[in-house]
Write a structure and sequence with these properties.
Layout lengths: L1 E5 L7 H4 L2 H8 L4 E5 L13 E2 L9 E2 L1 H13 L9 E11 L2 H7 L4 E5 L5 E2 L1 H6 L3 E4 L9 H12 L10 H5 L17 E2 L2 E2 L9 H19 L1 H6 L6
Parallel strand pairs: 1-2, 1-6, 4-7, 5-6, 5-8
Antiparallel strand pairs: 3-4, 9-10
Length: 235
Amino acid sequence: MKIDVLSLFPDMFTGVFEQSILKKAKEKGVASYKVTNFRDFADNKHNKVDDYPYGGGAGMVLMPQPIFDAVDSLKQQVAPEAKPPRIILMTPQGDRYTQRHAEELAKEDHLIFLCGHYEGYDERIREQLVTDELSIGDYVLTGGELAAMVIIDSVVRLLPGALGNDVSAVTDSFSSGLLEHPQYTRPANFRGFKVPDVLLSGNHAKIEEWRKAESLRRTRERRPDLLEAYKEKPE
């Protein structure tokens, strides 16, 4: 997967892309990352990318020209016959991001993330350029960079070969529609707190039964809203 990010602060991504799973995915050739400062595409001598909103109001609005030109440049760097990229606008007004979005985006070949600052974007960016508008929650961040990092991490870990064990992504919380069951490791008895006997039994059918029951219980207690949308798959 090819991942491009348009940001006014590209250095924010340096550490993220050079650590943990994202770094390993890059080294394996599973994903590639490029961060472009769209200020470099401003067509004025001061490299200005924002201006006052028409009609007045507080704050500054990102102008369409630098972002349109930056996206055009990225598209020209791939083969003409390639599948068009998904162009994702990070905005508090977007769809609330979920694991289902991650699974959908993980099927793509090329993602472009638009990270803005200031008061917002010129509406023509939304209407004519982007394919998706996403938000990671009902709160406002200084810019779209942190939100883009969250989404990129959640998508890349789903790509085949990104994780050491591909089963891990399947059993994570939200992947099944439920929260993940409790996990334990050695020692079996730590300061008097013991691992459930069923996990030490060696009976895999019983263990799976326990895990499913615990996943349902935990979801019911912590996220009952998820149960409303959950439909148990046939055995």
